[in-house]
Amino acid sequence: MIEFTKPFIGGRFRRAHSGDTFTTVNPSNGQAIADVERCDGADVDAAVEAAQSARSRWRFMKAEDRANVLRSVGQALRK
Fold this sequence. Notes:
Elements: E1 2-5, E2 8-9, E3 12-13, E4 21-25, E5 32-37, H1 41-58, H2 63-78
Parallel strand pairs: 1-5
Antiparallel strand pairs: 2-3, 4-5
C-alpha cells in the first residue's frame, strides 16, 4: 500500500489545505491502496489557478515544442 499521497498542484506535490486524509480501497478485493490527502475548495482554487497559468504559457508555445513536451510525458508514463 502507498502510505501517503499529496495532491499535485502547480508542478509540485503539496499538503492539502484541509489536513484530512482518507484511504482508497480496491473495490475488487477490499484492500487498501493508498492514504490520500483530502482536498477542499482552497485546493481546487489553487489547481484551477495553476492550470490557467499553465494554459497561458502553453498556448504561446510553438507546435514543435508542445509536441516535445507531450512526447516526454508519454515516455515518463511508459516507465
